[in-house]
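Milestone M4 deliverable, item 7.
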Amino acid sequence: MRMEGDVVLARLARARMTQTRVMTTALAATIAAAVFALPMVHSGAQPAAPAPGANPAAKPEMMENCPGLVARNGTPRLLPASLKGDEVRISYVGHSTFMVESPAGIKIATDYNDYVKPRALPDIVTMNYAHSTHFTDFPDPGIKHVLRGWGSSPDKPARHDLNVGDVRVRNVPTNIRNYVSGGTERHGNSIFIFEMANMCIAHLGHLHHTLNQQQLNEIGRLDAVMVPVDGGVTLDMDGMIEVLEALKAPLMIPMHYFSTYSLQRFLDKAAAKFQVEMNATGSTVISKTTLPEKPKILVLPGRSF
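Output delivered:
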């Protein structure tokens, strides 16, 4: 009887694995098709065209230092000389998920979901809900802080301001495009900003539109930013480059590109404005003193979907 029971359990396990692979393959095909089917438009309100003969309105641009914990009021505070005390490790897990580790060992996983997960259990996870590869309804119960990037309604956006150890996490809500109606869902995405080691590091989530001046002011001057570069499911490539120019971060790390083809399309377009470097591994260690002097796109190898 015990052997028969073991056989039944094994068959059930294989059936569940097969079902999971089928669901994941179908999801990948749906999203990949959307990359080519969706119009490349900016979501949200668009500025009115200038009157004939009038000067075009100035584009929003980053003017303030990161307004939060570590970079307020002018020049950031210098830390004592140390090999590790001022360093942050950023590891690309895949799709839109990174593991960000602080000097004190606090681990943050971005766009935490059921499909692409870091090996180590994070202390903090952030999520967005554009589609299911950016969130989960069943986070590991061992995760102490689960930060969802959407609120209970369009009129009640998510607002987070969390301090854990040597890390502060806050968010700036943005809109998303509804894939069914094509309309705008207000506050359906969050840009999360991680303040640690005297740096401000941002994850743009599933960004669907360029940023206005108020949003740029809330984000503040960044040291590094993780940016979706698929060019269709999120913001079109020209729009995303405009966002990067406005943010003025010295270090930009691509994500959410589905294939090497779409990644290369973005890099070819961005190379006219930024330096591009391919990292040998999926992880990099940064500090305030080792950031690039000129804005650089650093590609970390990882799972594209």
